Amino acid sequence: MDNVRTFCIIAHIDHGKSTLADRLIQHCGAVEARDFRDQILDSMDIERERGITIKSNSVTLDYVARDGRSYHLNLIDTPGHVDFSHEVRRSLMSCEGALLLVDASQGVEAQTVANLYLALEYDLEIVPVINKIDLPAADVERVRTEIEEDLGLDSDGAVLCSAKEGIGIEDVLESVVHRLPPPTGDPAAPLKALIFDAEYDPYRGAVLLVRVMEGTLRPGQEVLLMHTDAHYQVEEVGLLQLRRVRTAELAAGAVGYVIAGVKAVSDIDVGDTITEAERPAGEPVPGYRPAKPVVFSSIYPMSNEEYPELAKALEKLKLNDAALTYDKDSSAALGFGFRCGFLGLLHLEIVQERLRREYDLSLILSAPSVRYRVTFADGSVRWIDNPSEFPEPGSIERTEEPFIKASVMMPERYLGQVMELCRERRGAQTNFHYLAVGRVELISEMPLADVLFDFNDRLKSVTQGYGSFDYEMLDYRDTDLVKVDILVNGEPVDALAQLVHRDKARPRALHYCERLAETIPRQQFKIAIQGAIGGQVIARTTINAFRKDVTAKCYGGDITRKRKLLEKQKKGKKRMKMVGSVEIPQSAFVAVLKTDKD
Residue 585: what pLDDT? Predict the structure, then answer.
């Protein structure tokens, strides 16, 4: 095992993790030139289109070092966005070391710091790598200072490279084999293997991606999943070398895949531990924490006939995305659906897009919400994330909402605008400290509900793209919560109901009304779109009717002839309004989730 290294690449979003992984794979000759494409570890089209990594992916590489020794390198590429930190956490559990990538022009950013703390939590060896040194704006000495002062790492040991140009790639590989420790573990001990990911194969069932901590995995073994207590027989094991390569066994320290005839997707918990049925391990692999969703939204199929397909799609997606949670839900207007929990708005957007592309489903989403704690007058407590479950205000003693500790890193010149942005979002106990020359970290306690929608977009706008944002959950605090209903033609649309702070109720309701007025098609009658708290209307917009000129045929004569025709038209429109129904297109539900127009 001295010749094995298991490591991951961690960084802030867009600092070049996937590009560096591409160069390492090419340098080790794991892919033919004709088969190579950019972001080769990103298996989904949506990842390549957006230029972000959503799923952790692993690959085993063979590398011959400068001293002539051959090494097996298990590389795990991780996402950078805060919404996918659960993927990063599971990857770190499987590794002994990490390459911490820092952009030579952007420097240390918020998610860089957050990922470093995650890696230190699992006691990993860290090698700092300064990437993009070929850029005209690169300032290596400033970034070295930030690594030293912001991260507390030795900047003299930082490896310089440009993944795009292929500069310094061998130096990175040399630092992996000489500075990161080999795995520990006894191949003869009782089996203990961590399931750090899984994927669904329509022909083979669930394919488990594992890191073997102790013991050896072989085909034919009877294995036990320690969390679910389920027994399976191993059919095939192997390594991941951009495709599945079957091997005779996976010994301690190896990263690979296991196929064990797992047909029911719900039988697998990503983060579970595999052990032998006859000689089980004493305890599972420590350190796993289930994902805690912070954003909730209901997903409904466009037609009720697609409900079974949606149920199957979510079950398969749950295996591939362990952070996704869902329960059955129903709506008077939209029928049966699922109440889903996500790690953030980007996570919600990605799940919706994957359901549409991979499973060909047309969906309607309700307005995202966070989970509130409601205490009733009789002392009982209930957790509420669905506006339809919000009780009558008279029965409530107090409501509490989740608060986060937000960390914003930016150049000093933007401090005033960012403090104003935090104040708008009900930020409390805002303070800041200087990291390096000209760089500031601002820390503020804010309600999660106010950060969800467009805080990150606004931050990028006011800091011209130089600000970066990360957060961690704090606690629950008292709030003045109200339920805002959206009425279209006098009928409440329960999928658009939302729970908001009273001070934010009117702006949010007005935003929803205006967006709906832009996207709902005009009818033969006027459509009123209203936002209301109980019986009190707080916002309104109107979609004007198509108007036929019924007086066109009157080319003269008395004015009463025109009035008579207009009155007749008016009565017809009134009658039509009573019996007419308004179809709300799917684009309207998506439009209200987007931020205000520039």
Answer: 65
Structure tokens at 341: 């929990």
Q: How far apart are CA 82 and CA 85, in angstroms?
A: 5
The DSSP 8-state label assigned to residue 150 in this structure reads I
Nearest to 18 by CA among 43, 61, 53: 53
Is there a contact between 171 and 23 (Cβ–Cβ < 8 Å)? no
Backbone angles phi, psi at 105, to 5 degrees: -100, -40
- Written as one letter, the residue type at 403 is F
Got the DSSP string for 433-445?
EE-STTEEEEEEE
Residues 32 and 152 in one domain: yes
Q: Is 29 left (phi over 0), alpha (psi -120 to 50) or beta?
A: left
Using an 8 Å Cβ cutoff, are 104 and 15 in contact?
Answer: no
Cα distances (Å, whole numbers) of residue 37 to 32, 46, 59, 242, 536: 10, 15, 15, 12, 58
Residue 376 lies in a domain: yes
Question: For residue 418, what are the CA distances in angstroms to 111, 461, 497?
Answer: 18, 10, 30
pTM of the shown model: 0.71
> Would you say residue 486 has pLDDT above 70?
yes
- Token readout for 330 is 């129903």
Residues 118 and 208 in one domain: no
Name the helix (H) or strand (E) containing 99: strand 97-103
* Long-range contacts (CB closer than 8 Å, 24 or more residues apart) made by 576-581: 576/524, 576/525, 577/489, 577/525, 577/526, 580/489, 580/523, 580/524, 580/525, 581/489
pLDDT, tens only, 574-586: 655 444 456 666 6
Query: What secondary structure letter does DSSP report for 420?
Result: H
Specify whether 139 is located in the same domain as 84: yes
User: Strand pairing of 97-103 and 4-11?
Assistant: parallel
Give 2's Cβ-side CA count (13 Å radius). 1
- Over residues 380-400, the pLDDT tens digits come to 898 888 888 888 888 888 899
Non-local (6+) Cβ contacts of 253 within 8 A are: 1, 4, 6, 182, 183, 184, 185, 212
Q: Do 333 and 215 have their domain in common?
A: no
CATH of the domain at 354: 3.30.70.870
For residue 302, give its domain range.
295-365
Phi and psi at residue 513, to the nearest 5°: -60, -45
Q: In whole angstroms, how large is the CA radius of gyration of the chain?
A: 28
Write the DSSP assignment of 119-140 as a string of letters. Answer: HHHTT-EEEEEEE-TTSTT--H
Integer Cα distance of 297 and 416 in angstroms: 34
Give residue 165's identity as a one-letter amino acid code: E
**Residue 577: closest CA among 456, 473, 489, 471:** 489
Mean pLDDT over 555-579 rounds to 68
Domains of the chain: total: 5
